Give the backbone structure.
Amino acid sequence: MTAPAFSAWTQEVQLEVERALDAFLPPATAVPHKLHEAMRYTTLGGGKRVRPLLAYAAGALFGADAAALARVAGAVEMIHVYSLVHDDMPCMDDDALRRGKPTVHVAYDEATALLVGDTLQAQAFEVLAGADLPPARLVQMMRLLAQAAGSAGMCGGQAIDLDSVGLALKREELERMHQLKTGAMLRVSVVLGALAGRDLAADELQALDKYSAAVGLAFQVVDDVLDATADSATLGKTAGKDAADNKPTYVSILGLEPSRALAEQLRREAHDALAPFGDNAQRLRELADLIVQRKA
Amino acid sequence: MTAPAFSAWTQEVQLEVERALDAFLPPATAVPHKLHEAMRYTTLGGGKRVRPLLAYAAGALFGADAAALARVAGAVEMIHVYSLVHDDMPCMDDDALRRGKPTVHVAYDEATALLVGDTLQAQAFEVLAGADLPPARLVQMMRLLAQAAGSAGMCGGQAIDLDSVGLALKREELERMHQLKTGAMLRVSVVLGALAGRDLAADELQALDKYSAAVGLAFQVVDDVLDATADSATLGKTAGKDAADNKPTYVSILGLEPSRALAEQLRREAHDALAPFGDNAQRLRELADLIVQRKA
């Protein structure tokens, strides 16, 4: 049996993730209704599900079973969605549009947006804690998720981003910010997907880290290129926001064409990192291609 | 050797918790400086540490070691502190004073307050994940912490609280709100402290749950009494806030004296729940007394 084509596989994973998130989220009929409804409003029915796709692709490489992968994917996506809800709030980016819909504080109110994010973060850890995996490995996975979400990861990157508005960042500083803000959660999605399959040897973890670092950075470079070139309808969020907010981007530091060339170089680095895994890493390779070649 | 007097014990635990939090928080010298400084500003040097005291008292009953208890106490206190930081924000209670100091969004800014809370929640799970305990039990503990912090616990109670402003809640509805908003984290502090010692039998867990339910409710009743009778300087936060915000309280529903009588009744229920544990539960009994008889 040959593996399904990549686009069929991504659609299958996205459907599976949608089903899993629907099952992991509290029902809107349960009290408190508004909180649960808003959690479902912002989590379900949208998003590229890049982190879950990375987890499934890495899981496929290490023989992870479907139930464990659904929990890993649900957990990383909930952390991601909570970060979007909080980032969109007026005291942060003050954005009204996300995934083509009004943001939570616009559709509901600020207090609900705050609570939706807080609750999704707790829910992410609850979902992962329920995975049927060897406990010692599961503890390791929960620790990695907490580190990736915290001040040495996503939140730390967000704080550096806030502190950088209006500053002329050097390229290395911009890179460090993105390694934390976006890269840490992309990396942990790959690693947790792999750990859902089995324990990893040091060289396997190192290869996955190289891949994740390249893909994570490429993701951000492409985001900056799209923010500068695509329109809001295509992106499902407000385009041109970074320039308007005077935020440093790869396009503002390197220029448009060098940014595109950098993304392509990172795509090749991601492929090279996967060489030890042979054909089994096909989905991870295709994901690197998707991340660099996407139009939204 | 006799056990130290209760007041000496609480001081010793509070010092130990302060040391533990100081060690578990990222140093202010690490990037991002402002985030780490604000996390330390709001977490260190204040607070009654009620949840850590409950964890240590329950841990003493089940032979927990000091290092594991420090992680449990650090984790529950970080969750508590994050909830205070977010609750104080303008879109929630809009409070300027907490633990006798300006709140985080006043001392820093709203975006920092949002990130401080988000980061402390992640950090709590990271701290607990680092406990040197049997992995299967530790996974159970992390799951319980996530449940207590999420929509079936603290965040859910907060959402019900928000939805109740200006409504004439019945006593049972008020009780349900507090069981989630405050009770869930108090309960999990007791249970995690005990689990830091050993696995619990069903009847032991049931006894601890009865104790926690009584203490949790008593805590809130006394909070309402103090909010109505003490001044801001004594409380270290804005007094009379609930009445001014038109929030339902035990005092507004039952009246002042019946509220005091209820607190005393709950104190006795907490003692009764501990009967199966004999003298070893002395610290838990004394904590119930402290919670009911406190003046701030």
